[in-house]
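Subject: for your reference before the review

Hello V.,

The reviewers asked for a structural picture of the protein, and I figured it would be easier to keep everything in one thread rather than splitting it across files. Below is the amino acid sequence we used in the manuscript, unchanged from the supplementary table.
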Amino acid sequence: MLAGDLDPDHCTAGEVASTRLVTVDTTDSLDRVMEVARQESVRRLIVLDHRNPVGIISLGDLAIARDPDSLLGDISSDPPDTV
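And here is what came back from the structure prediction:
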């Protein structure tokens, strides 16, 4: 089961997607991006270039950029686990 007791075999991406999107611009500084993430209490921000989405920046991305030797930066930079 997914959040909200939705059955993954009978629901759509739109039913589970976030509806409140927080964005930053490609020209925003890392300080500004971190400020927006903190103010909005979000872990991921949509990055826009002339109002077009071009990527997503996560808290892990910010940790790597700011302090790659921090615990979060270290965890975030590791390759994903494989089964």
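For the response letter, the relevant points are probably these. The chain is about 35% helix and 20% strand. The radius of gyration is 16 Å.

Happy to draft the paragraph if you're swamped.

O.
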